[in-house]
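Reply to dn_fold:

You asked what the input looked like. This is it:
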Amino acid sequence: MDGTIYLGENVFPFAVTYIKRLREEGKRVLFFTNNASKSPEFYIKRLSRMGFEPREDEILTSGDVTVRFLKEKRAGKSVYLLGTKLLYKSFEEAGITLSDNADIVVSSFDTELTYEKLERACTLIRGGAEYLCTHPDFNCPTENGFIPDSGAIAAAVTASTGVKPRFFGKPYADTAEMIFSYTGIGAKDACIFGDRLYTDIALGKNSGMTAVLVLSGETKKSELSSLPPEKQPDIVLNSIEDLL
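and this is what came back:
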């Protein structure tokens, strides 16, 4: 979403028009973000305010993918969450047991990060807790530049503990599998639009979706020259406006 259909609080009007056209043509629309610092309810309100008219079943985040994994693969395990109050609420509402003495540490894009929280996470991991992370993004684009994201926080945890997390979100297979099962749309009929090579485009290439890179966010066109053929986006656009 961020960098593709809006940038910070600046909505791209052409994206509103294009998504409206997709719905009129009977296409299934899904808004997916790696940014797990907010809840799906937050994004519904934000996208509604911006004019996208989202339905409740059109929003998924990397937090949702992580919750699904915890419920299906780590049932009954407690979690220490390095995340925002909104993500904390999402985990609680999903029935995840949250604890300061947990079996699993989950870190995310925590805009409410404190040294105390970081220290606790590292202590648990050193003590043997499994380490998971909602998404690997190092920076989050805003209208004023970039700010440290989930991957940057995970890098700090890894630097301290020597333990690398299992990542969720884009570009990992758990996310593609959830998108396909959630929408009922298979890879050959799906198209992903995104502004990041290592998350959005990589998810498309890894899973068989058509991968469309837009240059309205993080990636510069000059970066494509260093990519091997199998990682190149299928289509490159200045922005979604090109499709109108």
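The chain has a mean pLDDT of 95.
Hope that clears it up.
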